[in-house]
Amino acid sequence: MLHPRGTTRSGGRSRGWWTDADDVVALLDALHVPSASVLAHSAGTRLALSTATRYPGRIASLALITPPATWLTGSPSDAATIGAARTEPEVVSALAALGEDTATTDAGFVEQFQRQAPASYAKWTERERDHARIGRVSLAAASAWFDDIPGDAAERIRSASLPPTTVIAGDADLLTGVQPVADYAAAIGAELVWLAACGHYPWVEQPAAFRDAVTTWLRRD
Q1: 39: which strand partners?
Q2: What pLDDT was estimated at residue 205?
Q3: pTM of the model
């Protein structure tokens, strides 16, 4: 597993997800692996796509898990529509907080992240609450992820000859929406696998269905 720059185990600071593709290839070179199948989740799907775009032939296939999608296609979020049936107070509050990007301190960023967390899951039970407490977030690290991204990055990815790609998404993921992900998969010529009653973290919410989807992807490769 590659721990990207800016995460706890890697240290350092990201140079931006476009440039950090160099690290993926450096790992393959260090392992003497000509090419590899890459599974990436959420923000990591940008890094996976940049690697496949910038280094043709080094990525044999991609599995992109619950990818943020609007940046690639411009499709507007439909989170409000798919979340209309959610009545849990925490989820209603989280929906209202989605899209907020006003934090200027780490403390504010953590508070904002925690407020939005209930929108990450199809249900908000103790299991999801426990998972939402895992890990740490950093405003500086998150900001660095978007440093020095070429203005035409999305266009370059859409026009690239990408390897066989599978998108695995949750049909109740309020962070990515549904239609934006469908448009995203179509834009990159990917197979799209929907997981029912699932939000942004399928290995937590629908582990059996997620395992089956990933196993199918690996066997196809």
Answers
A1: 63
A2: 97
A3: 0.94
